[in-house]
Design a protein that fits this description.
Layout: H1 2-18, E1 28-34, E2 37-42, E3 47-54, E4 57-63, E5 89-93, E6 97-102, E7 105-110, E8 116-120, E9 125-137, E10 144-151, E11 157-160, E12 174-177, E13 198-203, E14 206-212, E15 218-222, E16 229-234, E17 239-245, H2 249-260, E18 274-275, H3 283-296, E19 302-305, H4 326-335, E20 339-344, E21 348-349, H5 355-362, E22 377-379, E23 382-385, H6 392-400, H7 403-409, E24 413-416, E25 434-435, E26 442-443, H8 444-467, E27 474-476, E28 488-490, H9 498-513, E29 519-520, E30 522-523, H10 532-542, E31 549-550, H11 566-581, H12 583-596, E32 601-603, H13 604-607, E33 621-623, E34 627-629, E35 639-644, E36 648-651, E37 657-659, E38 662-667, E39 675-678, E40 682-685, E41 699-705, E42 709-717, E43 731-740, E44 743-752, E45 760-766, E46 775-777, E47 780-781, E48 784-788, E49 794-801, E50 806-809
Helix pairs in contact: 6-8, 10-11
Domain Glycoside hydrolase family 31 TIM barrel: 263-588
Protein name: DUF4968 domain-containing protein
Domain Glycosyl hydrolase family 31 C-terminal: 597-683
């Protein structure tokens, strides 16, 4: 008996000792090719599965013992990444290493210690393991703490990682992913709401990305602790990451977004202006807000209802006092051009008289603790249970609950909040809460970071089913990599301050390059009240963010565009109207995102990574291919210095031409935001509407900016609603501008079956270095006119048929 006790003590002490030391792979004994997969086995049981996903994407998946568990990730639409056929793939064994070669990359696996190195075909080292994969055993949880450390390449810079409220360049910083309701966060607050473990690295003017697909609490160190080492690690799960080669930053984000799948096109109205408050109630107040927009001729497409529209905060109910006839109210708002968007939280009130609670309880749809009791937590309705959205049958049930709101009442959009998941006083669920995880059973430690994403998924499925044949619109506060498939988002509970205006700019850029482009901030700040100047500057920035919504807390003052007086109202109205004129450009940019994975908002380094002066810039960004924006984020300013990328640019308000590769002064009183147009661009604009669909668009204005040389632009068109575009009912128009000292040629190529409502273009000519005297369209003379713009400029123009192929100006 004494011997048995001594042996048991030894085993326990051995486990405790292991939990305090870092462990490493041993010597590689074998390397085996299995199609496009390669398995490497060490003498201590560690294995590396190296998968060639595409010629530019490599997956590294490690286990410390046993066999690889079933392959599954919520990051991918089908649970596993889609592969591409490879034209070239070579595997060779050398005396001290194995080498895998694709058309674009070389990967070396060291036999001595399983460390890896990835190079491009020119021989440039892109990433090189420092310690490489290593781990610690955590005795308390039974998990391995999985770690990866890599050498910092010379001159490396880091970008991405979702909604982190910090400098654009991440070098020298450390961050954690653990979705957290961080009310009133500040610059540097961490973690926040979203969990996107994807970052980009740039060195020697060549870019790559790392996607660390692990849903446990994960941390990232970008040369903060050790100046020559970058690392990432997680509190459990696998060391499982994807190396994504550019060589451009833009290509890295495109590859990542395609890997995790971009969203479908939203309805066009969802790109319009939206007004929200916690909370608009009762019905008379909602109607008054709506009437306030129409009376003042301020465009607006959506009015939001926060938690007070419900009966005692019970999801999928209506307050009989505040909204006694919701269907009638929603229909009347719709007749005046307003879509109604409502909030839905995950907490389901424990109430036997509440049908949603009874259904969830009867069918065992709620999360349970390890020993069986239902998970209970307090949120807005009081004590609640919480659905397990990681089970398909629960998602199906949840989706079906939207029939009443969407199909019967007529609500057009749903907004998911509190889905980190957040619990009052406690922060979130206890670690021992259990989840179905689509058959891969897990604790909260693994499921926490994907809870909000799976709620958004279930919500989107319901809104989509009951909105058909229209397109769905959903919003989420929390998400994980791949969550862009299901929802738009916003940056959470910010503050009415100039610092938060600055943060909104950074966070939306960062999320965009992290695959999540349909993003915006609470304009004006959710907490506290802005003054008129701050509000107008924020609206000016928001007009160039894909999700364009004012939102504020009822604990503070009013925050409608007219809340700060007539002067500020007219200024805000001007920027909202500019957004509506730019809708065809914004929609085209969204189409590029859905088809190519191209980020809608692009930091300066994405525009010209060969120019090292762009690497540390944060304020300037492009929306799409041709608009360069730089918000003013300090009070009392009448302009700002900003950096123009190399090339030729025109200042939007004056048509003043500027040469890039330098800082320039942009004069911008409160009626302006520094905005430059790339030379050679063709910018399509709609007439101003009070809401999308208010009037039939009969003519589109094409603003053509001169360039000495050639530039191309694109305009995508479909019905802006429904799914006809998936059956070919869309048209892509490509414009080519070719300019010389005494002439300009505008060519159009159209592909597709969609016939737009407009039959003509009004072509407005900017920056011509000559006085135009002759116009011809497809060989026929065209009559010159003039156009006076909202900026006050009067410029030469010509009206042409929408089907033209060539416009010659001399």
């Amino acid at each position: 008996m004494a011997d048995n006790i001594q042996e048991l003590n030894y085993m326990v002490n051995d486990l405790a000792a292991r939990s305090r030391q870092e462990l490493y792979p041993g010597r590689v004994l074998s390397g085996e090719r299995q199609g496009t997969d390669f398995i490497f086995r060490c003498d201590n049981g560690v294995q590396l599965s190296l998968q060639v996903i595409t010629d530019k994407v490599l997956r590294f998946r490690y286990i410390t013992e046993g066999i690889f568990p079933p392959d599954f990730s919520y990051a991918f639409a089908n649970g596993v990444p889609a592969r591409q056929e490879l034209e070239f793939l070579e595997f060779r064994e050398k005396p001290d290493h194995y080498r895998i070669t694709t058309d674009r990359l070389i990967c070396v696996v060291d036999k001595e210690n399983m460390r890896t190195r990835v190079l491009n075909r020119s021989g440039l080292v892109l990433t090189d393991d420092e310690k490489g994969f290593h781990w610690e055993y955590d005795y308390d949880s039974g998990n391995d703490l999985v770690k990866m450390s890599k050498q910092v390449q010379s001159g490396a810079h880091y970008y991405g990682l979702g909604d982190k409220p910090d400098n654009m360049n991440l070098r020298g910083k450390q961050f954690t992913n653990w979705g957290t309701d961080t009310y009133g966060y500040q610059k540097g607050s961490d973690p926040l709401y979203k969990n996107i473990p994807f970052f980009l690295a740039l060195h020697q003017k060549v870019a790559h990305g790392i996607f660390f697909d692990n849903t446990f609490k994960a941390s990232f160190d970008f040369a903060a602790e050790r100046a020559d080492v970058a690392s990432f690690w997680a509190q459990g799960g696998e060391m499982n990451y994807y190396f994504i080669y550019g060589p451009s930053l833009m290509e890295v984000t495109e590859e990542y977004t395609r890997l995790t799948s971009p969203p479908e096109l939203p309805p066009l109205w969802a790109l319009g202006y939206q007004q929200c408050k916690w909370s608009y109630f009762p019905e008379s107040n909602v109607k008054a807000i709506a009437q306030g927009f129409r009376d003042r001729k301020i465009p607006c497409d959506a009015i939001y209802l926060d938690i007070d529209y419900m009966d005692g905060y019970r999801c999928f109910t209506w307050s009989p006092t505040h909204f006694p006839e919701p269907k009638r109210m929603v229909q009347e708002l719709a007749q005046d051009g307003f879509k109604t968007v409502v909030i839905i939280d995950p907490g389901i009130k424990i109430d036997p008289d509440y049908s949603v609670f009874r259904e969830g309880l009867k069918n065992d749809y709620f999360c349970r603790r390890a020993d069986g009791p239902l998970m209970k937590g307090s949120v807005w309705p009081g004590l609640c249970n919480f659905p397990d959205y990681t089970r398909p049958e629960v998602r199906e049930w949840w989706a079906g609950l939207f029939k009443g709101l969407i199909q019967e009442v007529g609500v057009k959009g749903v907004w998911n909040d509190m889905n980190e998941p957040a619990v009052f006083e406690k922060g979130t669920f206890p670690d021992d809460v259990r989840f179905g995880y689509d058959g891969h059973h897990a604790s909260h430690k693994k499921a926490h970071n994907i809870y909000g994403m799976q709620m958004a998924r279930a919500t989107n499925e319901g809104v989509k089913a009951f909105s058909y044949p229209d397109r769905p619109f959903t919003i989420t506060r929390s998400t994980y990599a791949g969550g862009q498939r299901y929802s738009s988002g916003w940056t959470g509970d910010n503050i009415a301050s100039w610092e938060h205006l600055w943060l909104a700019n950074i966070q939306c850029q960062r999320l965009s390059i992290s695959g999540f482009s349909f993003i915006g901030s609470d304009i004006g700040g959710f907490i506290d009240t802005p003054d008129g100047e701050l509000y107008v500057r924020w609206v000016a920035l928001g007009a160039f963010h894909p999700f364009f919504r004012t939102h504020s807390s009822g604990d503070h003052g009013d925050q409608e565009p007219w809340s700060f007086g007539e002067h500020y109202m007219e200024l805000a109205k001007g920027f909202i109207e500019l957004r509506y004129r730019l809708l065809p450009y914004m929609y085209t940019t969204f189409w590029q995102h859905t088809t190519q994975g191209t980020p809608m908002l692009r930091p300066l380094a994405f525009l010209d990574q060969a120019d090292t002066d762009t690497y540390l810039r944060m304020a300037e960004f492009s929306l799409g291919d041709h608009l360069l924006v730089c918000p003013i984020t300090t009070p009392g300013a009448d302009g700002r210095w900003m950096y123009l990328p190399r090339g030729e640019w025109f200042y939007y308000y004056t048509d003043e031409a500027k040469t890039g590769g330098q800082e320039v002064w942009a004069a911008a009183d409160l009626a302006r935001i520094p905005l430059f147009i790339k030379a050679g661009a063709v910018i399509p604009m709609f007439p101003v509407m009070q809401y999308v669909g208010e009037k039939v668009v009969e003519e589109v204005t094409l603003h053509v900016y001169f360039k000495q040389g050639t530039e191309t632009s694109v305009l995508y068109e479909d019905g802006g609603e429904g799914y006809g575009y998936q059956q070919g009912q869309s048209t892509t128009r490509r414009f080519r501008v070719t300019g010389s000292e005494n002439g300009l040629l505008l060519q159009q190529e159209a592909e597709g079956q969609y016939q737009p409502t407009w039959t003509t273009y009004r072509v407005v000519l900017h920056g011509l270095p000559f006085q135009p005297t002759a116009f011809s369209t497809d060989g026929q003379p065209a009559e010159a006119t003039e156009a006076t713009l909202e900026t006050g400029l009067t410029l030469p123009a010509v009206v042409v048929g929408a089907g033209f192929t060539e416009l010659v100006i001399g």
